[in-house]
Amino acid sequence: MNNRKFEIQGPVIGSNVGTSGRARAGDVHIGHIQDVSAVLRLLDELREDLNEAQAPTSTVEAVDDLRAEARKPKPRKDVTDHLMDKLADRGLGEQMKDLAKAFAALY
Fold first, then answer.
1. Residue 29's Cα: distance from chain center in Å?
2. How confident is the model at residue 105 (pLDDT cuts 50, 70, 90)?
């Protein structure tokens, strides 16, 4: 029998969920997935509140832009800070504090 050394390369099913196939078994960080879902939940709640209050379209678009940024593998702090400042100027201060804490976990 011929004994050859071999190595399995590439994504292994079940071991690299949420890591774009770059992680090895044991390198999965579920915390990041939970952080993103917390941000998305807060943004959904904020969007519902804005829809009920019939907020201007530009405010709702800023929330949608924040949502798109949160879903990126590496959200940019300068972009999120700009969008959050834009929303804070519209009287959403208390909700923005919670959102800022949630976004801080993503960086």
1. 14
2. confident
20: region left, alpha or beta (phi > 0 left; psi from -120 to 50 alpha)? left
Per-residue pLDDT averaged across 33-42, rounded? 82
Nearest-5° Cα angle at 78, 107 to 28 = 20
In percent, how much of the chain has pLDDT > 70?
68
Beta carbons within 10 angstroms of residue 22's beta carbon = 8
DSSP-based three-state secondary structure for 73: coil
Cα dist from 44 to 13, 14, 103, 105, whole Å: 31, 29, 14, 18
As given in the structure block, the two tokens for residue 68 are 């798109």
Q: Which of 26, 105, 37, 21 is CA-nearest to residue 71?
A: 37
pTM: 0.64
In the block, tokens 């941000």 appear at 39
